[in-house]
Amino acid sequence: MSWSLLFFLFTSFxxxxxxxxxxxxxxxxxxxxxxxxxxxxxxxxxxxxxxAAMLRVFxxxxxxxxxxxxxxxxxNSFNKTELDHDMNHSLAGDAFDLISRIKTALELACPxxxxxxxxxxxxxxxxxxxxxxPHYKVPLGRKDxxxxxxxxxxxxxxxxxxxxxxxxxxxxxxxxxxxxxVVLTGGGHTIGFAHCKEFANRIFPNADPTMNPILVxxxxxxxxxxxxxxxxxxxxxxxxxxxxxxxxxxxxMKGISVLGSDQILFSDPRTKPFVELYAKDPVAFANDFGKxxxxxxxxxxxxxxxxxxxxxxxxxxxAHH
Length: 321
Hints:
The chain is an all-alpha fold. It has helices at 3-16, 32-46, 50-62, 93-109, 116-130, 164-171, 178-190, 213-222, 247-254, 260-263, 272-280, 282-297, and strands at 193-195, 233-235.
């Protein structure tokens, strides 16, 4: 292969990530890193579920038409947005509150400069680090989407009762292979939580035989009134819920998974070896998770005229004209 062709391929790849750079705000908003880090830290100390909430919003955003903050846009009388899809109803308010706090501070420091999609990507990484996870690079310069449509969500996100086949299929468009899917699922669930209705079928009326009986009893008590108390939720890693670590994989091997879609990762021959790898090797888990997150965070990012920098994260700029 000629050097010129190699150079062309390299520059085409670099360009496909839309001129994202690690120092994108160095001149236009030098306090960007400090503001995102400080506000994220404060919020995580106030509400320890913030990291998990943010990671979920990040995935739900990137999986649908790329990492462009389209999931943050609220519906109006003309348009039902992604947020109104039932799979996004359980996204936690703490994440949206944090994004709003960071956006407000950045608009005071450098008005009209920082996109909501960059806030979402950077704050998610910071919160993962605060929770004990790996630090990974987040190139910046994403633009925010001008569209958010409810029907776009269907088929892009895997539901909690999804088969391994379906999970593999959902991650494929993002260039995520089976090993990366396992590491992202474990990483997403090591600090994650799920509402009772999302796993009720595993404990009522009969228990899923793959689930540890003690866990079944605990969850039955906790979720006894789940049809009336819709906010009731359980941590997905019942052993070390607040820590970003590899314990989730050890749990899966012992049958103490809250979600069926986590448990089946241990029974499918395509995913089982990776569950075993990450259960015994926390360093491999941290490294591979960081690399996979870098990959996800640049998925179908918008640049230049493809998007805008929203003044408010929950509305497109010309929404009221």
